[in-house]
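Worked example (supplementary).
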Amino acid sequence: MTIYNFSAGPAVLPKKVLEKAQAEFLNYNHSGMSVMELSHRSKEFDDIIQDAEALLRELMQIPDNYKVLFLQGGASTQFSMLPLNLAKGKKAYYVVAGSWGKKAYTEAVKLSQTIDFEPVLLATSEDSNFDHIPAIPEDGIDPEAAYVHVTTNNTIEGTSLYDLPDTKGVPIVADMSSNILAVNYNVSDFGMIYAGAQKNIGPAGVTIVIIREDLLNNEPALSSMLDYRIQADNHSLYNTPPTFGIYMAKLVFEHVKELGGVAQMEKVNRQKSGLLYDFIDQSDFYSSPVKQATDRSVANIPFVTPNTDLDKAFNQAADEAGFKNIKGHRSVGGMRASLYNAFPIEGVEALLAFMKDFEEEHQ
Ligand SMILES: Cc1ncc(COP(=O)(O)O)c(C=O)c1O
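After joint prediction of all chains, the assembly is encoded as:
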């Protein structure tokens, strides 16, 4: 049975990358050691992390005045690290268009009880279960604010922010965890971008931060590990970094480059997700909670059947048929197909055939 992995993260990785890692697993580059056994101060690992950074810079066309950091703690640590470093004494705006954006805002509010800054909820679509991207009141943005935080892809709800607000020079900070390298954004439109690796980049354990140099903190943040300036000055080697994860990320970056880069990824992702959206839209049986086509994610596509019993039956039958991890997030139910870069179009075609059969059987 062919297995298709629809997991929202950790997610499917390119088979070629896994095979390359397997081939090099015991003896990396004639070193006689596995990548996992290399010192993070060794020449071999230094080449790996430098290549990884150079490739990411090339893929995302990251300007020279941005630092690229390979950190730990997941995107969730960034929810606190960001205000800790950037927000001192200022306002920090949050656009909350999904559960993860809400977590980022909630963490900021919590931190503001200890650190002097003012988190402000700029826009939210929570009252309609985050089924759309809310309008962002650009006129309400104080030009002296530290940043405007957005989530470019709402992994759980299946919406995306494609058109960035005009923030009148206030840096936009983006949680890009679920569509980094999947949708082509212009890095210079952002002050900072962060992303957990476990969707489009590699295994869990690496967090990418891309930050404009002038936003690096001048005063020490609470702890060295949480200090962007220290991490940048030490080229992400302040402590022992997640070496194997960074190596896997490097292999994925090479692979994405070989396939034609981020623009090509986006094109294919639009094709893949388009097949599924078109099928859902013509069906009387399945429906998408995201009605506005312009808000729809190309990475995470939630859908439901006419009732929760049928959703349950669908999830069980899909799992038995090899469509793994297609169950919707526990907070929203239904189904969710995550079609990240490494997810093959054949998997979407097979899913559509399965959905058709299920519909006929349960109509
Ligand atoms: C958009 C978004 N932000 C943040 C997170 C949390 O990431 P982590 O588990 O790396 O902390 C996720 C996880 O799925 C996510 O999708």
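Two points are worth noting when inspecting this output. Residues 261-282 form the longest helix (22 residues). Residues 9, 74-76, 100, 151, 155, 175, 177-178, 196 surround pyridoxal-5'-phosphate (CB under 6 Å).
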